[in-house]
């Protein structure tokens, strides 16, 4: 049976899923397909490459640097998070902590990265064929939070965060042939997403990208619907939802190392649920 894992991202809350995936590496738990949204795409890239602990360093060490995320970045580059620094300077073969591209490429596990076309608002599903050595544009596109970051262009097309296109891509996993799916959330399963912050960000991009703005306004509802669908599949034994019971004070853009370490450890401990689900 084809088994998938979905990492929905969530900015710095993604360190929870990072802990879950490090547990899976330690326990040699494998999947046939990984679908990553936003920061979840970076988590899965390191997982597929077998680089245990790599993402933890990005969250707790590099994430504190001004080059990584800062108001200065926003003023100079119109992006609070400098995607080229994160997925270029740090991640390229000659960077401080390179992604093992060869291992990623050779691993038979399929990989889908979700982004959103800023002009149409529609989901774009990239795969391994779109990832090349030292060209990690798909991760940059998938992680570009509207207004907080400028859209990232690939072949002339602007892209925003994958959560606008498909925030909880359960249907995509089953359409890709999976018979069972592990869904990694980074906020408690029963906590509904609200739209207040999304409304504010949507207003900032509406003039230039009206369709993406509308998708952003709908994101909370679509996230909540996606979780509800996952819960229905869970009742049928087809989905396992792994989510923290609390976020330890970590939010999308917060960067307290102690809080992030606690959330990572919570994820690592919760990873044990996957072993029994997969049997």
What does this protein look like?
It is built from 13 helices and eight strands. The chain is of the alpha/beta class and 279 residues long. Strands 1, 2, 3, 4, 5, 6, 7 and 8 form an eight-stranded mixed beta sheet that branches. Strand 5 (152-154) and strand 6 (157-161) form a beta hairpin. Helix 1 runs parallel beside helix 2 and helix 10 runs antiparallel to helix 11 (210-235). The mean pLDDT is 96.
Would you kindly provide a brief summary of this structure?
This protein has about 280 residues and is α/β, with parallel strands linked by helices. The protein has 13 helices and eight strands.
Largest sheet: 8 strands, mixed
Give me the count of strands.
Answer: 8
Helix/strand-derived category reads alpha/beta
Beta percentage is 5-15%
Write down the overall geometry.
Answer: globular
Rg result: 17 Å
Overall pLDDT metric: 96
Portion in helices = 40-55%
Helix-strand sequence: EHEHHHHHEEHEEHHEHHEHH
Counting DSSP H or I runs of 4 or more residues, the number of helices is 13
Give the end-to-end Cα distance, rounded to a whole number of Å. 12 Å
Poorly predicted regions: none
């Amino acid at each position: 049976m084809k088994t998938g894992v979905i990492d929905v991202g969530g900015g710095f809350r993604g360190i929870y899923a990072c802990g879950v995936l490090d547990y899976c590496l330690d326990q040699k738990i494998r999947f046939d397909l990984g679908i990553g949204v936003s920061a979840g795409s970076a988590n899965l890239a390191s997982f597929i490459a077998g680089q245990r602990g790599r993402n933890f360093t990005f969250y707790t060490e590099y994430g504190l640097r001004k080059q990584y995320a800062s108001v200065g970045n926003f003023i100079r580059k119109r992006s609070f998070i400098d995607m080229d620094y994160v997925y270029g300077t740090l991640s390229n073969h000659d960077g401080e902590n390179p992604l093992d591209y060869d291992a990623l490429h050779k691993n038979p596990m399929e990989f889908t990265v979700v982004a959103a076309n800023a002009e149409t608002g529609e989901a774009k599903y990239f795969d391994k064929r779109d990832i090349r050595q030292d060209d990690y544009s798909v991760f940059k596109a998938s992680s570009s939070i509207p207004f907080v970051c400028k859209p990232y262009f690939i072949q002339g097309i602007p892209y925003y965060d994958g959560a606008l296109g498909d925030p909880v891509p359960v249907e995509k996993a089953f359409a890709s042939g999976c018979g069972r799916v592990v869904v990694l959330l980074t906020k408690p399963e029963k906590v509904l997403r609200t739209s207040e912050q999304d409304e504010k960000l949507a207003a900032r991009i509406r003039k230039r990208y009206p369709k993406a703005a509308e998708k952003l306004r709908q994101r909370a509802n679509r996230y909540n619907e996606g979780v509800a669908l996952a819960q229905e599949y869970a009742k049928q034994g087809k989905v396992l939802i792994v989510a923290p019971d609390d976020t330890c004070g970590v939010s999308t853009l917060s960067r307290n190392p102690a809080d992030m370490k606690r959330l990572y450890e919570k994820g690592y401990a919760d990873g044990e649920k996957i072993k029994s689900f997969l049997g």
